[in-house]
Specification:
Blueprint (H helix, E strand, L loop, with lengths): L11 H11 L3 H28 L6 H12 L4 E3 H8 L3 H13 L3 E6 L2 E9 L1 H17 L8 H17 L4
Antiparallel strand pairs: 1-3, 2-3
Helix pairs in contact: 1-2, 2-6, 3-5, 3-6, 4-5
Length: about 170
């Protein structure tokens, strides 16, 4: 027999906020709730992104490398520039590029203008894959967020303010 009662879940982050206040930290409670919510939303979005990209053997980090190359003028960038623009450690950029190269999606070559740096070039297969995956991510993640444009603008502005306070922008 089915029950007519609806179960109302308590938001664990709201509960944590109340506990923060009760523990004597009311001045930090809103910040804790914001940071915890932000981290949780990141987990949820990355999960959705991974579900979209997994059938194409891509991670979000590798997708970002491909997308960055596709946005570049000639589909070619120095590996150092890739790391800087994606704000990742050089070793992370190198690892992502290596995996993309193993999959035939990019090619690496010595920079003829500077023998110390390495250029990464998007292959036709990489361009095709990143275009298809961009359409999927746009449809299933980026344009499907359950907030309106004004809320997105306000959230982006607030996050940019925080990033600036950490000298990230």
């Amino acid at each position: 027999m089915a029950s007519d009662q609806t179960v109302v879940r308590t938001d664990p982050i709201e509960l944590a906020r109340r506990n923060w206040v009760a523990a004597g930290w009311p001045e930090a409670a809103d910040g804790m709730a914001f940071v915890t919510s932000l981290v949780r939303v990141q987990q949820l979005l990355l999960g959705r992104i991974e579900r979209v990209l997994r059938p194409h053997a891509l991670t979000f980090a590798r997708f970002e490398v491909l997308r960055l190359l596709a946005f570049s003028r000639n589909g070619v960038l120095p590996i150092g520039t890739i790391g800087e623009r994606l704000q990742v450690h050089p070793a992370s950029a190198t690892n992502a590029v290596q995996r993309l190269e193993d999959a035939g999606l990019v090619a690496r070559a010595a920079n003829p203008a500077d023998g110390r740096s390495v250029l990464v070039e998007l292959t036709p297969a990489g361009r095709d894959l990143v275009e298809r995956c961009t359409v999927l991510l746009n449809d299933e993640v980026f344009a499907a967020l359950p907030v309106d444009a004004g809320e997105l603008d306000a959230a982006f502005a607030a996050l940019r303010t925080i990033r600036r306070s950490f000298d990230d922008v």
